[in-house]
């Protein structure tokens, strides 16, 4: 039964997409030829009749958006409303967007599910709620305070400029290392930020590397280590 419903839904989406594409192509053809035949009594007339040029452009834009929404729906099974919501979230590559924060929380939930990183991820999720988790993209020279995208009352943070540097130099500068050159790890598997005393994690969110640093709930950062660590 589920398979049949899925098949019907996909067929409906594909049919709707085909119809709207035909309408769009037919409308463009009618505009160039100014013909008045049977084609003018088609579905295109129901969408575009009686409109001036500005209105027609608006209709074309709306139709293009609808086609894009139907394409997204056909590929992912998401509803048009869900596709619109996803579009309004922004791009995952933008660290101040809701889409990025959703990807961040999803990454932390993934880490929480793994035994080796569960405690660290739990601490980061608490830091997100407390507004004490900082996301840094050293390669792009951007930083932002993380916020919970599922919290309707959460206030989105704006990204700020940071020193742009390559990741090798950044990590050498920020992460505490032992005498043998290995980076120090806390009991929860997180690293230590040598400059701030905060806990830290370096990894990918989406297709980009980020540096996450946070103060654990109820704790202040340790005194920064100003000595050289090379």
Concise description?
The chain is built from 7 helices and 6 strands.
What is the strand tally? 6
Determine Rg (CA atoms, Å): 26 Å
Shape: globular
C-alpha termini separation:
63 Å
The whole-number mean of residue pLDDT values reads 75
The description of the largest β-sheet is:
6 strands, antiparallel
The helix fraction, in percent, is 40-55%
In terms of structural class, how would the helical and strand content be classed? alpha+beta
| Helical stretch tally | 7
The strand order across the widest sheet is: 3-2-1-6-5-4
Q: Sketch the topology as an H/E string, one letter per element.
A: HHHHHHEEEHEEE
Q: Strand percentage, roughly?
A: 5-15%
Unreliable spans = 1-12, 34-52, 221-230
Descriptive report:
It is built from seven helices and six strands, in the order ααααααβββαβββ. It has helices at 2-33, 43-48, 53-76, 80-88, 98-112, 118-130, 167-174; strands spanning 133-137, 142-145, 160-161, 191-192, 199-205, 208-214. The protein has a six-stranded antiparallel beta sheet with strand order 3-2-1-6-5-4. The longest helix is centred in the N-terminal third of the chain and has 32 residues, at 2-33. It is globular, with a radius of gyration of 26 Å.
